[in-house]
Every structure is written in C-alpha cells, then in structure tokens.
Amino acid sequence: MKKNQILVGLFLAGMTLGACTDDYTDWANPQSNPSEEAAAKYEINFAAGADATIMMDDVYAEYKDDAEGIQGDAVSIATLSSSNAMIESVSIGSVNVNGNAIAAELKNGQVMVNTLELDRITRDVFKSRAHVERTLDVTMNVAAKLTTGEAVAVSGASQVKLTPVSTPEICEDGYYLLGDFQGWDPANPVVMTKKGEGIYTAVVNTTGDSWFKFYRAYDTANPDWDTIVNPGQMGTVENGDAATENFLVWVGDSSCEAVQTPVISGANDYIVTLDVVNMSFKVAVKTVDLFMTGSNYGWGDTWKQLTPIHSAEGEFWTIVYLEAGEQIKFAPQAGWGNDFGGEATINDEAGAGLTADGTNLLAKNAGWYLLHVVNTTDRIVNVLAPNIYLIGDTAADGKWEVADVNKFAVPTGKDGEFVSPAFGAAAEVRMCVNFGGYDWWKTEFIVLDGKIVYRGSGNDQERVKVAAGQKAYLNFTDGTGSFK
C-alpha cells in the first residue's frame, strides 16, 4: 500500500476524473432525472478501488516507525471513470460505508478515504475487532459538470474488503479480573466463568468507582507483575474509561500505544462480560429481580414480577396476555429506575408484533405469549409461544422429556385457563415451560393452595400428588390453578 496522505475530515471541493477544482455548490441545479439513469447516460462507471482488499496488519507494519504517518494514510475504496466527452469534471457529494458517512477525496479517479476511519467504521458496523475479513458496501453521490455548464447528480456503489489487526489467541486456561474491588492482588484474582466460545463473565462487588483490567490466566503462585501478569493484560485506549460497553486493546495491539485502565462507576454488584472473539467487554448491574408495567398496569401503579430462570444470571420469564396496542417496559424493581423497553433487542418468534415505541415496547397482536427477558450486559426480549408441558410420571407418555403430547391447551381470552392433557398416572405432578435449551426443572412451577408457585432460582418445590385422569387448570391472569 502506498503512503497516500490526506487529512482526517477533509471534504473534497471537487476534482475531475482528470483534474478540476470546481465546487459543485456553485453549479447550476442538477438535472432531475434519477442519478442511476444519469450515470448510464453519461457513461460514468463505479468500480472497486485500487485498494479493494485492505489488511490492517500490513498498514500498521508500514508505519511501524512513523506514528504520525499512519494517521494520514489513505486508501482507495472506489474508482470513478468515464469516456464521455460531455463530462468536464466530477465532484464528490457524499460517501457512505454501510450507511456511515466518511470524508472522501477524489484523486485521479480514485475515491480516497482515511484508512483508520474506515477501520473504525468496520469495527462499529460489525461490533467486533475480530481478525476476520469484512465486506463493506460503499455508496457514493457525486455530481458531474457538463461542458454545457449544467450539472447532473450521479450515484453509484462498490465494495471494499478490510481485515482488522490480528487479535491474541484465546487463552485455553481462561481469564482473570483484577481491580480496586479485590485490591489489585494478583495472587487472588477474580476468576471469570466461561459461558461460550470466547465469552467469560464474573460478578464483582464495588464500594465506589472501581478501576479494573482483564488478564489472561497466569500462575497465581508466581504472580510477578512484569513477567507474568502484565503481558496478558487487556484494557481500553482511554484511561478511566467509564463506558459500560467498549472495545478492548491489548499488549502488542498495533493500534494503540498503551493499555489503559477502564473504571466501573458506583457501588453495586456488577456482571462483567468479556468477549475475546470480538475483543469487547460489557458491565451491567447484577439483576436479582425483574418487573413489568405498562399501559395496562397504570404505568407503575402495578408491577408484574417475572420469574428468574434457575442458574441463569439475569434471565427471567413470564406467561402474559398482551392486548393489541398495549405498551410495556421492564425494571429491576417494582418502581421506576434503570427501566427499559424499546432499547432492548426484540426477537418476536410468536407473532405479537412487538416493536420499539420510543422507550416502550408496543404489542400489535393480542394473545397469550411467553416473554423471556434478559437483563444483563445485554437487554433482550424474546417473544415465544406460551407452551406449557406436563413432564414425568403424570405426563401422558410418562417420560421426563418435553413432548407435544404433554402440551397444555392455550385459551383464547385473557381470563381463560390453560388446560393440561389428562394425567397418565397417579403420581406427583410436574409442570414447566421450555425454551432456550434450558433443562425443564429450571423453568418449572406447581400449584399450591390454589396458587401458581414458581421454582425460580430456589430449591426443589413441595410436591403434589394427583389422580390418573385428572387435569391441571391454570389461570395466569390471576395466578390461580387447580387439579381436578
């Protein structure tokens, strides 16, 4: 890659496909025909740029001893050309990469942008710093000045590929946290728990603002800072960064000079999540409870409590009837504060038509739904079918597996009852909802003294024996149930 130098933020006033410096804003109004038609009519072609494939490792290697040079490095993300004699000059109007505006310069027919800005957009678009080739869509609006003095608006598109810098290999031994919350004691780190490929979490308690960093697992019996601990540290570009979600830098990261220390703001129990695939982290207040309110609950006059999923930190569920046009939102207590709704990621698998309506969630289609709500470093609302099952000895097939033959009938109205198949045997009844791959007992419940009682995050519940041929009747609107 050549060292093409441009200033970050430079906006081209105009350069021809050959050479010109006219400003498009001084020209006559562009012709009104669609810009795509204009491009075809005047034979203006958009194609891949001279730097159609960019490796950021190579970019940084070229400027290894020239820190100032890399700030101004430029790459060609598109090529403009035309053989039409009526085209006198062309001026860049706007350039977007995956919908993100980027300053551009037209130089000898090449659309040039700042390399580091393109890398930043790639990171933000894919929410990742992973060392993976990314394909970016480039859209351009330009104006062509004709020999007649008129101007025509022209648009086109191309693609460019960019691979971010190499990231550290995942540490098979795991990851640790050190920080103010544990006295920066390298002999006693907070061990993070693996939750998935490259995903690790830990819960920490802070008594105030708490500085911290992530570390590759090391020998705690020999925690020498310089040779054992610090070589595996990960942090942020800005010292004291208090963002609850950000990208990480690491020792040897060519994009930064030093690994700085982020901070958790305030006193509380926090869930810290590390993603070493995408090199990012999140911090969120640990949620013990979750409640729902909305337009049908007097906007805070009533709060419906959701049920925690056993052994799943910050995840909850409920069976609820939503009216058409009903608005809802959630909070970690039966009152306002740290509440959310429209900000959450919505996965509507059951057809409720649940969408963001400002900071609220709006249901378009009335009916019964199972809501699975995640309130951790992510906020997610999954809308699922309200499927309830018998399981075990009283199930129709007598098996300890979720099966359609044991599914409850769903009522049509808000005050209707869910009705189970007839119990297959006289035994202790077990009931559950089932989703997300969780074991059935993590979402089970029972009816005691006429009330639906949920296991939640608690121990095994009191058992109730029923007779063969009876059925379970559940009313989730008023929380009651019976076996008869």
Automatic annotation (TrEMBL):
Highest taxon above the source species: Bacteria
Sequence ranges assigned to domain Outer membrane protein SusF N-terminal in this UniProt record: 20-164
MF annotations from Gene Ontology: starch binding
GO cellular component: outer membrane
CDD domains recorded: CBM-Eb_CBM-Fb (cd12965), CBM-Ec_CBM-Fc (cd12966)
Outer membrane protein SusF/SusE-like C-terminal domain ranges (all copies): 290-377, 387-482
Keywords carried by this UniProt record: Signal
Domain SusF first starch specific CBM: 172-284
Pfam family, one: CBM_1st_SusF
Signal peptide start-end: 1-21
Protein name, UniProt field: DUF5115 domain-containing protein
